[in-house]
Design brief:
Shape: globular
CATH class: Alpha Beta
Largest sheet: 7 strands, mixed
Number of domains: 1
Helix content: 10-25%
CATH superfamily: Nucleoside Triphosphate Pyrophosphohydrolase
CATH topology: Nucleoside Triphosphate Pyrophosphohydrolase
Number of helices: 3
Number of strands: 7
């Protein structure tokens, strides 16, 4: 699966190596904290490929791509990505473009959970409609032009650059 991802830079190549060497009993369990666990997210392009769908994540306090933990009922990472996109944005009619990015980021301690790494496996999708809705986890769902994203964070800007190339922009 990871062989299909073309690393954008040395940082992402390092993330792919970290993911390949992740050695925990259950890498998909949200309770694997040392060093962490695999998460799944989706970068959703608008029907005309001009914009990226982001959600205002209440717990993190930032605009992010939809995504989260892999649940026991998810058949695979792709199923988790689709479920998370639907739960957080209401978008269900998606064309899957493939796995395209890996990111490793530190998630802060919260409650009984210690700080740990999220090994985020990401797919690119195109929505077949502009309509969105949200849920209790997110305070907002919004399309952002690819050239005007709200965060100066490599976790978002690196995949956005890959998407701009994919969209021919």
């Amino acid at each position: 699966m990871l062989d299909t991802i073309q690393p954008f830079d040395e940082r992402e190549a390092g993330y792919i190596d970290e993911l390949r060497s992740l050695n925990v009993a259950d890498p998909f369990s949200r309770h694997s904290f040392e060093p962490g666990h695999i998460t799944a997210s989706g970068f959703v392009l608008s029907p005309d490929l001009s914009s990226l769908l982001l959600v205002w994540h209440r717990k993190i306090g930032a605009w992010l791509q939809p995504g989260g933990h892999i649940e026991p009922g998810d058949e695979d990472v792709l199923a988790a990505q689709r479920r998370e996109i639907e739960e957080e944005t209401g978008v269900t009619d998606l064309e899957w473009l493939g796995l395209f990015d890996v990111d490793v980021h530190r998630f802060p301690a919260r409650g009984a959970d210690p700080a740990h790494d999220h090994f985020d496996v990401r797919s690119a999708f195109v929505a077949n409609a502009w309509a969105t809705s949200g849920n209790e986890e997110v305070e907002g769902v919004r399309w952002f032009p690819l050239d005007d994203l709200p965060r100066d964070d490599p976790s978002i800007t690196r995949p956005a650059a890959k998407l701009r190339a994919l969209a021919g922009r």
